[in-house]
Sequence to fold (95 residues):
Amino acid sequence: MGHVYYHHPGDNQFSLDFVHEAPSEIVARIVEYDDDVAVKVRKYDLDSEFFGIYTSRVGGGDVGDLEFDLGEVLSEMVLTTVLSLPGSSRSIKRS
Fold:
């Protein structure tokens, strides 16, 4: 017995988005995706033949090009600390 992969086995940046047995439905779905969506199709033959569409967003650019001030973001966050008590299922939460 086989299985259908959630992430494309050749590229884990692609996640399963749609499954159907009719090639015409696969094509109809592919043409509906926006331009920033990369698509890979994988054929499966378990108990019957069907196809899986795997997608990945390709827009956004390099992470290094992002403008991001970590100090500013951290100052806006409420930090929560959870202390676990050894030998107990209770915890103390401090904000």
Q: What stands out?
A: The first helix runs from residue 23 to 30. Strands lie at 7-8, 11-20, 37-45, 49-57, 81-84, 91-94.
